[in-house]
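Bug #77: duplicate submission created two jobs. Keeping one. Sequence:
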Amino acid sequence: MILKHDNTYKIGVFWSFASAFLWSTTFVSARYLMKDGAIDAVSLSLIRFVLGGGILFVLGVVFFRKKLFSVNLKDLFQLALLGLFGIVGMSVFLFVGQKDTTAINSSMIMQINPVIILLGGLFIGEKIRPIQVLGIFMSLIGCMFVVDVITLRGFAYKPDHMRGDLFVLLAAICWAIYSVWGKKVVKRVGGYAATTWAMLLGAVELLILRLVLPMEFNLPDSAFHWSVILYLAAFPTAVAFFAWYEAMDKIELSLLNVMQYLTPVFTIVLAWLILSEQFSLMNAFGVLLVVAGVVFTVERKKRKLAPDV
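Kept job's structure:
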């Protein structure tokens, strides 16, 4: 009995870790595409979720047919609303913002949403232990060091990033709404079905948005840009969203969001290697704080499991 619960917990942590890493590549990939104007935000979001949702749907038909088609009209309606926030709002706002701010900044701002989720989770019955609150804020402070919000000279902020940062903040709010509301839906229909249908319905909503918005759209004209988009659709989208929901189904919401603080850690390393964004000793100190906060929370949870089962 203890082994069964411990294995479930470990699997949940693994999926959470995988989603954190894959989502870090979203910020780097999108920043690469958006900073040069290779594609507009709505088109990138549409292609991302049409392909990502299509991949999940095909795999679902082959391996999870019963779960995939067990949803009813009420479930589809709720998943469509989830898609409006977590697919359309989150993705478009994030990509628009990344035209004017760095991959690292975007990743850090998205880490604000666990604070919103922490409060929202209280309304759906989540119980938050003091140690989890400590872990969240410890990791949040680490994120601020990682992205130079806190420096040796105090708080620092670049006004030229303000427009982009505000759009990314809107993306974080959309994701928080999606995460809190999605908890009950996932419990009812299952992580795979919820992820797939929210993604496909969100893609339909993005198509409608693209048809009605009075703006100029542009698509990539190079094979390499298309390869980046295909990667974005397959891994940080299909695989990462599935991993998020699988983790949500196995570990509590508050712990899941602490684990997501690893995303800016991965992002800063990848952005330094791929985009030549800056990395300093203060950033490294922030990385240590983030990792320490996650490990501390995970270890306390493991020790608590045994007496309960």
